[in-house]
Specification:
single chain; 305 residues; alpha/beta; Carbamate kinase; 8-stranded mixed beta sheet
Length: 305
């Protein structure tokens, strides 16, 4: 959609181009992982909120999962709490976990929810601790052949989507923060990766699509060659490429891989630095970023990806 925005014929073409996608996704759940620059740029955050409201108005059921890495780092620094990363993962003490919870549930979730509510009473903030939504288990990491304890950090090992279904049935847009109760240590919780949490939730909800917003245009098979952007990749092709990816891209592509392997029809990473990129990914023939599809994927006849 590159025509001038004030060109009425172009506007009409854009609307007509969206028609087959409206037919495909109406009444279906789309899980969107909100992150990257869109979380720290007020205008991009506002555009994202508008996208979610638009989806809800046209009959698509968006579910938002968010992280908050930059905000967590800033708050830890403000409180004088040490912040350390090992193997790309934040070491999370009990004290740091309280900051993570405060930032995710009290700051990021509430801010995004309020932006969505500017357009009506649509959004409801919940966390992975709400109604047993997520169940987590501690994880460590291996550095130089040695196991490293990361503290209150874990993976989502179970999902009970009852609370999310209830919110969707009530006409709400769930805004989910990535904290999970520890299944092995009742009363304790874990900081879980928002990409993998979004993937696990998409599988549990039987979502039609998972969309992950990030800070790049998509997946490159020969980074930093910007001409090597991949528009579509199968599960087998991604499995082969995964070990060669940049470390920051691995959790996002792994989330997409696990979603599609778990039964989600499609998963995509898109550029969250572009306003309304979610709408362009869903409603345009060319899409926005890189789409992951099953090995047996057959073109639906409306996608150019």
């Amino acid at each position: 959609m590159t025509a001038h925005p004030n060109d009425p014929p172009a506007q009409a073409r854009a609307l007509i181009e969206s028609l087959p996608w409206l037919k495909q996704y109406r009444g279906r759940i789309v899980v969107v992982k909100f992150g990257g620059n869109a979380m720290v740029d007020h205008e991009l955050e506002r555009a994202f909120a508008e996208d979610m409201v638009y989806l809800r108005h046209v009959g698509i059921l968006p579910v938002v999962v968010h992280g908050g890495g930059p905000q967590i780092s800033a708050e830890l620094k403000r409180r004088g709490i040490p912040s350390e990363f090992r193997g790309g993962l934040r070491v999370t003490s009990a004290e740091a976990l309280e900051v993570v919870r405060d930032v995710l549930t009290g700051q990021v979730s509430q801010q995004l929810t309020e932006m969505i509510k500017e357009h009506g009473d649509f959004a409801q903030a919940v966390s992975g601790e709400t109604g047993g939504l997520f169940q987590g288990r501690r994880k460590g990491t291996v550095i130089d052949g040695e196991e490293v304890d990361l503290g209150h950090v874990g993976d989502v090992v179970g999902v009970d989507p009852t609370v999310v279904h209830a919110l969707l049935d009530a006409g709400k847009i769930p805004v989910v923060s990535s904290i999970a109760p520890d299944v092995d240590m009742p009363g304790q919780s874990l900081n879980v990766n928002a990409d993998s949490a979004a993937s696990a939730l998409a599988v549990a909800l039987g979502a039609a699509k998972l969309i992950v917003l990030t800070d790049v245009a998509g997946l490159y098979n020969d980074w930093p060659n910007r001409n090597s952007l991949v528009s579509q990749i199968t599960v087998s092709e991604l499995n082969e490429l995964l070990p060669r990816l940049e470390s920051g891209m691995i959790p996002k592509m792994t989330a997409c891989l696990e979603a599609v392997t778990g039964g989600v029809a499609k998963a995509a990473i898109i550029d969250g630095r572009v306003a309304h990129s979610t709408l362009m990914e869903i409603f345009s023939n060319d899409g926005m970023g890189t789409e992951v599809v099953p090995d047996n994927h057959v073109s639906d006849g409306v996608s150019a990806q």
